[in-house]
Design brief:
With 548 residues, the chain is an alpha/beta fold. The chain has three domains: 3-47, no CATH class; 61-427, TIM Barrel, CATH 3.20.20.80; 436-540, Golgi alpha-mannosidase II (Immunoglobulin-like). Helix content is 26%, strand content 18%. The chain has 14 helices and 20 strands. The protein has helices spanning 27-47, 69-72, 79-84, 104-107, 114-122, 131-134, 145-154, 191-201, 215-218, 244-247, 263-280, 298-313, 377-388, 408-424; strands at 3-5, 10-11, 14-15, 21-23, 86-90, 159-165, 206-210, 284-287, 322-325, 334-338, 350-355, 392-397, 432-439, 460-465, 468-473, 481-484, 497-503, 512-515, 518-522, 533-540. The chain has an eight-stranded parallel barrel, surrounded by five helices. It has a five-stranded antiparallel beta sheet with strand order 13-14-15-20-17, covered by helices on one side. A three-stranded antiparallel beta sheet has the order 16-19-18, with no helix packed on it. Helix 7 (145-154) crosses helix 8 (191-201) and helix 11 (263-280) packs parallel to helix 12 (298-313).
């Protein structure tokens, strides 16, 4: 007999989901079991409809945090995260296989889309050859997590995040609740576990991202069929109930939003993400959305509380974990902006998540600024500085090929960042915002999906640490001079008394003049242009002058 993995639980004697999963070797036994599954399916769908979140089982590890907003206000972001500033993310999994980019597992079921056409040409019709048939093609045969982690650390990463599960419902960890995981299929390796081991060997805090919360409605296209053509009306493979352990059972009418309103799926999500947290004890957990299933939903809030309590138990009662989601936090977690930035200094730490290219490997991707597959190291460095000046962190996806290697262009970006951070890390790590985040012509609006800004040397960002004020120009100044208007002389003779100015990466103090137009610093004659130009400034009563 094989091992039966029950993805769901019983609540008030009602099944909370549409199917069990089975991991066995015997085709005959599996066939018998799946027939039993069909009987349970009908009972589950008809008998559990009246369930609410209040009926669910949401165990939380013992500790001071409970699954409500009032309790989570006791959270304080740990200093390790505030000091780290820069993390690298492996947004990687079987959706890299077609090399067609993000959301392939869904768009291949959308007749007429580019991914549907690609899938039809290379893999067959999704009624028979669906996502389940792509997963085994992801072998990660050249993946060396230890080697990659050393490179990520050299490039400046102070924490690392692994994909846990994307919307395709495939788990990268060794799950006992879900058979569709990387130990059973594809690489046959515990991807999360191996990434974690490599990160810890480099002394990096380790996080995981979960995108499972949106999977239940996201994957419903797999239940549909072509509307036209010779196979019109023939259901895609996701419609078969013996595949619902991967594609989910059919959503109820009207359940179409990012987060499902179905309590059965809420329970499933809670069980599986709790398994991830309890088994791996991550330092950071990222959810691709707001708090799962709603801003004040008890299921999502209970998951956060469990993460905090599990972490606190391992750290002498003090929570050192970070929870990221795309919802205003008020300090109860760390708000995340996808491919966007904050508009100003936030008193609460926050994070941007973005990528040097598409989210999954995409051979067709064109960056808006470079016109190539990847963005530039200039963009990464300047974006990082802008974010840090506003009390944020940057989490950067470095796109991996399906086999687990990096393109030469991606490696080149990391090596260039390593050179830059070796000089400028002093103005990044462990810093805090100044009284204003910066000055200049480019004033990014806060929010997601707005990140490609044409910064120049006139755009200057400020950070502080240990009595030093750092001014970093987001470009290289012409004529060997940099003027900082915020440090101009004012009518108050006690304000902005500049004592010493140095250039990061250069020994010795620099010459400067100060007028009511600004502080003008003469750069060393032998200074080589870099991605940014950073200055360390010491003085008394440094406050931003009022700019016209």
């Amino acid at each position: 007999m094989g091992k039966v993995n029950n993805r769901y639980v019983l609540v008030n004697n009602s099944y909370l989901a549409a199917a069990f999963t089975l991991v066995i070797m015997s085709p005959n036994m599996k066939h018998i079991f799946l027939r039993v599954t069909l009987l349970l399916t009908a009972s589950a769908i008809s008998g559990a409809a009246a369930l609410t979140d209040a009926d669910l089982q949401l165990p939380i590890a013992p500790g001071k945090f409970a699954g409500n907003m009032a309790s989570l206000t006791n959270y304080s972001c740990p200093e390790w995260f505030r000091d780290a500033k820069f993390g690298i993310w492996a947004h990687w999994g079987p959706q890299a296989v077609p090399m067609e980019g993000d959301w392939y597992a869904r768009k291949m079921y959308q007749q007429g889309s580019a991914d549907y056409k690609d899938h039809l040409a290379r893999y067959g019709h999704p009624s028979t050859n669906g996502w389940k048939d792509i997963i085994p093609l992801w072998r990660a045969e050249k993946w060396e997590p230890e080697k990659l982690m050393a490179l990520y650390k050299q490039a400046g990463a102070k924490y690392f995040v692994s994909m846990g599960s994307h919307h395709d419902d495939f788990f990268l960890w060794n799950s006992t609740l879900h058979q569709w995981n990387a130990v059973n299929y594809g690489p046959h390796r515990d991807v999360v576990g191996e990434w974690q081991k490599a990160a810890k060997a480099q002394g990096l805090p380790f996080g995981v991202s979960e995108h499972l919360g949106a999977s239940f409605t996201w994957f419903q296209d797999a239940h549909k069929s072509d509307k036209t053509g010779p196979l019109a009306g023939v259901p895609y493979d996701g419609a078969a109930s013996d595949h619902w352990d991967l594609y989910h059972f059919p959503a109820e009418p009207g359940d179409t939003k990012w987060y499902s309103n179905n309590p059965r799926w809420h329970q499933q999500w809670y069980n599986e993400i709790k398994e991830l947290v309890d088994q791996y004890h991550p330092d950071l957990l990222y959810s691709d959305g707001g708090v799962a299933f709603g801003p004040t939903n008890v299921v999502g809030l209970s998951q956060i509380a469990n993460l905090y309590n599990v972490n606190a138990a391992a750290n002498g009662g003090v929570c050192q974990a970070v929870y990221n989601c795309k919802q205003v936090s008020g300090g109860s977690w760390v708000q995340d902006y996808e491919r966007g930035v904050g508009g100003g200094i936030d008193p609460h730490p926050w994070q941007t998540d973005t990528s040097i290219g598409d989210w999954f490997y995409n051979r067709h991707y064109k960056d808006k600024q470079t016109g190539k597959m990847y963005g530039s190291p200039e963009w990464v460095a300047r974006t990082l500085v802008d974010i840090v000046s506003k009390n944020g962190n940057l989490l950067l996806n470095v796109v991996l090929r399906p086999d687990g290697t990096l393109d030469e262009e991606a490696e080149a970006i990391l090596h260039r960042l390593a050179d830059w951070i070796a000089v400028n890390g002093e103005a990044i790590y462990g810093t805090r915002p100044w009284l204003v985040f910066g000055e200049g012509e480019v004033k990014p609006k806060g929010g997601a999906f707005n990140e490609k800004f044409n910064f120049s040397a006139k755009d200057i960002r400020f950070t502080t640490k240990g009595g030093n004020l750092y001014a970093i120009a987001l470009g290289w100044p012409g004529e060997n001079q940099l003027t900082i208007r915020s440090l101009a002389k004012t009518d108050d003779a006690e304000q902005n008394q500049i004592q010493r100015v140095e250039m990061l990466g250069h020994q010795g103090k620099l010459e400067f003049t100060q007028t009511k137009d600004g502080l003008t610093v003469t750069l060393p004659a032998d200074a080589k242009p870099d991605l940014t130009c950073g200055l360390c400034i010491q003085g008394k009563n440094l406050k931003p002058a009022v700019l016209p």
